[in-house]
Structure prediction request, 137 residues.
Amino acid sequence: MKQVIVLAAILPLLLIFIVQFTLQEKNAQMKMDVASDVYTAAEQARQDGCFTEANLSRLRQQLASRAGTQESEIVIDADEVPKYRVNSYNENERIHYRIEVPVASVMAGNRFFGISDEENRGIFVIENEIASERLRP
Prediction:
């Protein structure tokens, strides 16, 4: 009887580890997919010389579907003014971008440990700069 009581107390804790591992794998896959989408959009911006409205709109839709969130929750801060290719390094001719994607659930069994759903959120941030390939007209 003593073993059944101990099992009843320990089993939920052990199950949380299994669920947490699964959640971490899901979040890691989502982050890889988001990074891939951002890389694709950045390569398009490299060709265009900046992030165009169509490129940002498509990226926002893709990220919202990948992260399972609303488009309004995704923050994209990117250069929308065309930059041009130069033969030497020039900070002003690089395309800067910062993208924030919310992660809805970071920890499995958060309520079991007294963590609210609002506290159980995170933000995946990608910030980078790329050189423009657009030629001057």
Notes: The chain has a mean pLDDT of 92.
